[in-house]
Design goal:
This protein is an alpha+beta fold. The protein is built from four helices and 16 strands. Among the domains are: 104 residues, Tumour Suppressor Smad4 (Sandwich), CATH 2.60.200; 59 residues. It has a six-stranded antiparallel beta sheet with strand order 2-1-11-10-7-8, with no helix packed on it.
């Protein structure tokens, strides 16, 4: 039987260790939860931890105040040792006793208050590209591309493809993890875009443009791995 261990980093029970809890379990403030938290901002049955296809999956049970992992709001997420869960005013560190000890030795207890970020060089490295020094490059708006006025693709031009249905919890968690990773990378890029006065063109730093290209390459790689599962690229 798979078990999980949590250390309370912040909250009323700070310092308490919930060791080797058999899963599946629920986390909440009422009796009947495998992990009960004394926290009024935690819902009665706040979240669930289960194993699926070898992965430990955390699912928010439509809680009032939500669940965060490493500072990012989640609905479903695959947990890794060292992940920090924010549930109400309580922060939990996930992992075995040995992994918790290693994490505590190298990271401050409040590290989970800071959301993880994706740097341009990280995404570029993942796509096999080398990051370049920041510069400025013109990028056309969603109305045109380039001086020739070639029509630009827009998500509004066609129906948005639906997400696959009836995913297992493990599949849903992995898909959510991929989408969140790509979303954070694109968010960093678009936050540094400057538009001209009439809104017909935008300028983006070259480092951010590289990030957009890296995300594009990652999406292409994901597409190939799905359509050609035997490809070991």
């Amino acid at each position: 039987m798979r078990t999980v261990t949590f250390l309370v980093l912040e909250g009323v029970d700070k310092g308490r260790v919930y060791k080797d809890l058999p899963i599946p379990i629920t986390i909440g403030r009422e009796e009947g939860n495998g992990l009960r938290l004394n926290d009024e901002r935690v819902s009665r049955f706040h979240a669930k931890v289960q194993v699926e296809d070898g992965d430990i999956i955390l699912t928010d049970l439509d809680s009032t105040n939500g669940t965060r992992v490493n500072g990012t709001a989640i609905q479903i997420r695959r947990l890794r040792p060292g992940d920090q869960l924010s549930i109400g005013r309580t922060m939990l560190l996930f992992g075995t006793m040995e992994e918790i000890a290693a994490r505590r030795a190298v990271a401050p207890a409040n590290a989970g208050n800071q959301a993880q970020t994706v740097r341009a060089d990280e995404l570029a490295a993942a796509s096999g590209r080398n990051p370049a020094p920041a510069a400025s490059a013109p990028v056309a708006s969603d109305r045109t591309v380039g001086p020739g006025g070639t029509p630009h693709w827009s998500a509004l031009d066609e129906d948005i493809p639906p997400l696959p249905q009836k995913l297992t919890p493990a599949q849903a968690a992995r898909l959510a993890e991929i989408l969140d990773y790509l979303h954070r990378g694109l968010t960093i890029a678009v936050e540094n875009i400057d538009a001209n006065e009439d809104g017909t063109e935008v300028r983006i730093g070259f480092a951010e443009w590289q990030m957009v290209q890296a995300v594009q390459m990652l999406l292409a790689r994901y597409g190939r791995s799905i359509s050609e599962p035997g490809d070991k690229e």
